[in-house]
Amino acid sequence: MARAKQLTISHENRPGMVAKIAKVLGDAKVNILNCLTTTSGTEGVTHLVVDKVNKAKKALANAGLVYIEADVLCVELPNTPGALAKFTGKLAEKNINITMGYATGGEGSRKTTVVLSVSDLDKAAGIR
User: Fold this and answer.
1) Among 36, 110, 121, 128, which residue has the fewest nearby CB atoms (within 10 Å)?
2) 127, 116 contact by CB (below 8 A)
3) What does each of the 128 residues of the chain score in pLDDT, given as a tens digit?
4) What is the CATH number of domain 2-70?
């Protein structure tokens, strides 16, 4: 399984914030591979996996966008019913907790990419 760096940006919960983040990264020629945005009250949080982490960090910092960096597990699974259950069941068998997760994959796609924050990345990375 692939490890990846996830950048988590804290921002205001208002129209245009995700567009601002995406534009900053697009202007820096950084491709967003996976994205999750959540909000609570006046606060928003956007989690990103990108193709060029160092360029993304520089672009975000130059734009005054505060971020934190974390290691996550990126798993490519078949885009079929039960695939996520099978994989996450293997994590549970090894007593690995999932603290956050999100997935991308379009209808008709053969594969989907799942991004997981887990309690033991080293152990999780070895699970097939």
Assistant:
1) 128
2) no
3) 589 999 999 999 999 999 999 999 999 999 999 999 999 999 999 999 999 999 999 999 999 999 999 999 999 999 999 999 999 999 999 999 999 999 988 788 899 999 999 999 999 999 97
4) 3.30.2130.10
List the structure tokens of 58: 């520089």
Strands 111-118, 67-78: pairing kind = antiparallel
Q: Measured between alpha carbons, how far is 5 from 51 in angstroms, rounded to an integer?
A: 9
CA distance 86 to 4: 22
**β-pair partners for 76:** 113
User: Starting at the edge strand that comes first in sequence, how are the strands of the sheet with 43-50 ordered?
Assistant: 32-40, 43-50, 2-12, 67-78, 111-118, 98-104
Token output for 51? 């193709």
Note the CATH number of domain 72-125.
Answer: 3.30.2130.10
The alpha helices in the chain, defined as continuous H runs, are: 17-27, 53-62, 83-93, 121-125
For the chain, give the number of residues. Answer: 128
CATH 3.30.2130.10 spans which residues of the chain? 2-70, 72-125
